[in-house]
Amino acid sequence: MFIVGLTGGIASGKSTVARRLVDHGAVHVDADALSREVVEPSTPGLAAVTAEFGAEVLADDGSLDRAALGAIVFADPDARGRLEAIIHPRVHTRTAELIAAAEKADPAAVVVYDVPLLVEARRELRFDLIVVCEAPADERIDRLLTHRGMPRTEAERRISAQASDEERRAVADVVIDTSGSLQHTLDQVDELWTDLSARAKDRARV
User: Fold this and answer.
1) Which residues fall in the annotated binding site?
2) Model's pTM, two decimal places?
3) Cα separation of 17 and 189, whole Å?
4) Nearest to 131 by CA among 114, 151, 150
């Protein structure tokens, strides 16, 4: 099995890259999806978040009010750290379970672990390759304004709360430039897949 860490800042085109790799046959493990799963209603994760931040982060139906929680943690690095201490270990546990299941199903699988906070979390995970998606901050802000309807101040705050391009490049084995056309991005991913699939097959034969 070959494990790829896929990361990039908000609106960096990471989802597009992940979808293309899945189209080629990769197994996708999405840290964002898992971070939502571990705080679903009636989970220990949601109970821990509520105990830490109060009932005001709950919606009327008892689910997590992500907007309310985001307003707290993106404005306060200490609060964000407390939230990550709750979420990250639970996501890590589920990730390990899903990767083990993928390996059991196909020893030659390419697993793409899609994790926005790969640099920020600083958790020891075993990656065979780290892929970073990158686009200029001003372009990412435009994407957040245009496609997500996010206010500019919120977009800027979220980008500044994440690792810098330099920090991501420092851990990258491959950088995918997503600032050009969609086809330009897909061409880079296709080239990456050719290498990944060959390396995974070679490893499985050993």
Assistant:
1) 11-16
2) 0.85
3) 6
4) 114
Give binding residues for ATP as ranges.
11-16
The 10 Å Cβ neighbour count of residue 94 is 16
**CA 120, 123, 124, 127 torsion: positive or negative?**
negative
Going by C-alpha positions, the residue among 30, 27, 16 that lies closest to residue 106 is: 27
| Residue 115 structure tokens | 């994790």
Six-digit token pair at 70?
A: 């985001």
Rg (the chain; Cα; Å)? 18
DSSP for the chain, written as a single string: -EEEEEEE-TTSSHHHHHHHHHHHTPEEEEHHHHHHHTTSTTSHHHHHHHHHH-GGGB-TTSSB-HHHHHHHHTT-HHHHHHHHHHHHHHHHHHHHHHHHHHHHH-TT-EEEEE-TTHHHH------SEEEEEE--HHHHHHHHHHHS---HHHHHHHHHHSPPHHHHHHH-SEEEE-SS-HHHHHHHHHHHHHHHHHHHHHHHH-
Per-residue pLDDT of the chain (206 residues; tens, 9 = 90+): 899 999 999 999 999 999 999 999 999 999 999 999 999 999 999 999 999 999 999 999 999 999 899 889 988 989 999 998 999 899 989 999 999 999 999 988 999 999 987 887 655 567 999 999 999 999 999 999 998 999 999 899 889 888 899 999 999 999 999 999 999 999 999 999 999 988 888 887 76
